[in-house]
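Pilot study result, target chain (382 residues):
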Amino acid sequence: MTTQAPTIPPQVATAAAPAKTRRKILLLALGAATVLAGAGYASYWYSTGRYLVATDDAYVAGHVIQLTPQIAGTVLSVHADDTDFVQAGSVLAQLDPADARLALERAQSHLAQTVRQTEALYLNQGVQAAAVAQRETEVKRARADLAQRSALKGSGAVSEEEIRHAEDALRGASAALDASRQQLAASRALAGAGPVLEHPAVAQAKAALNEAELALERTRILAPRSGYLARRNVQVGQRVAVGAALAAVVPLDELWVDANFKESQLRHMRIGQAVKLSADLFGQSVVYHGRVVGLSAGTGSAFNLLPAQNATGNWIKVVQRLPVRVALDPAELRAHPLRVGLSMLAEVNVEQQDGAQLAPAQPKAAATRGSAQRLAQASAAR
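Predicted structure:
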């Protein structure tokens, strides 16, 4: 007995044909989209992607200026707190200036006394010169008296004793002249050839006065740069020592990024290459544009307090990272302020290869400016 194959109704066959057609179209569209996506990615990688080197081991860095007293003293007042913005040259803390003022008054009195003593030395030279002139006149008179008596020696009008007295008088006048000349030379040696204000004793007293004025000036702890105060560790009434860390000033308008790239990522990296960065603080919606300004002279492990000893025999290879400094755009930094230590995502375009790997051997102006200029101006004003 033979079985017959089931027959498909015409309505079912008619409905299955469009479904197969749609499935075939969808598969073709999916394949075409995959091919286009692959071609697009290949085009992007060939034109741009292969030149991009990225790392998420990047952090915001900046100048953290420590405020330390240059003299010991007791804190009378503190004029700023953490997160406050301070202007360069503003007083952040005031130490007790009583001891410094007393030292300044002593230095002023000592300078005045030294100037008077030095002027007396210069005036004493005139007295010594007049004494030398007087002794020279006495020597001339004694020499003339001896010559007159010696001329009358054979006539009997002058005795031998008178001649001997005249000779003794000449020798005494000559000795007195020599003593006066030595006193004048000693006075000139003490006074010197220059003016009073250039005398060593006066210069030493002036230096002591400048030192006292500088100590009084240093009772005011000033902000060396404009920035935000952080890590305040000083309180009113506290006795601070020289070099104690009181606070820190961070100028947030001069920040950069230290991006730590692997060794294999540095082959084509050069100074001047463009960098795109994003911060976790603002997310991917805010993009910073920077430039590579330098590559560190050594990896992080090379500057450790206890560097790795790879010649011990139990060596394990660890991929090293090299810090790369990236300068930020000041306008973008003002629009979206960053903080020191924030995490960043850095992506360097290494297509440009005409830059150098190391900075040129020419001096650069230091980014930080201390209070040396202010102190020099204060000394000049005095």
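One observation from the pilot: The chain has six helices and 14 strands. A full batch analysis is planned for the follow-on phase.
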